[in-house]
Amino acid sequence: MGETRQPHLNGAYYGPSIPPPSNSKTYHRPGRGGGGGGCCCNPFSCCCSCIMNCICTCICQILFTILIVVGIIVLILWLVFRPNTIKFHVTEATLTEFNISNNTVHYNLALNLTIRNPNKRIGIYYDKIDASAYYQGQRLKTVELPTFYQGKKNTSTLNAEFIGSQLVPLGNNEMSHYNEDRTSGTYGIDIKLNLRMRLKFAFVKSSKVKPKIDCDLKIPLSSNGTASGTFQPTRCDFDWR
After folding, report:
1. Which of 56, 185, 205, 206 is most buried, most CB within 10 Å of its CB?
2. What would the pLDDT profile of 192-210 be if each residue is shown by its tens digit?
3. DSSP bridge partners of 155
4. How far apart are CA 224 and CA 207, in angstroms?
5. Are 150 and 157 in contact (CB under 8 A)?
6. What is the pTM of this model?
């Protein structure tokens, strides 16, 4: 068959144009639009994130290493010096006056206190020593004792005197205990020591520590040179806190 020509057209007519298939896939050029997958859009922010992660990891590793080194040093020092607890004893106690009238306690107490440093490689600086006397939880008086340096394997002796009177609010129970002590002739008096001290390891001095010492004493009353009993030397409780 020959080509069909229409008089109003200049060229040949081949029929209507064919539309593209409806299921055709749209092509996207990589790197443009939203189809880039996991690609980082901002290289600068990616670099910053990586650097911060590296810095945090390095800091954690450094801190962990420091803790390990410090722990090893402390362990080595402990193995070398082997610190032993300091021993406090009240070896003598003389109570020549103790009576209560109108809620006022009148007292006269003298103590001999020994401090034993059993360590072979550690010296001790006693920068402050406060001794306080208590009766049934009520403070009678605080005295400041002399400071000193105590060498290795050394025993030192301190003297403390508590003389005076103190107004104390004693209730019925406290007065009942006081009457029992007066009848027995022996009084329960508590001596507390507040210390500020430093330890000396060879040429190294530690920071200040503040241990608490508690001496629970039973002291017989002496009247006209005659005591109602015998004082027993007492070891004090030591608490580093």
Report:
1. 185
2. 999 999 998 878 888 889 9
3. 116
4. 48
5. no
6. 0.67
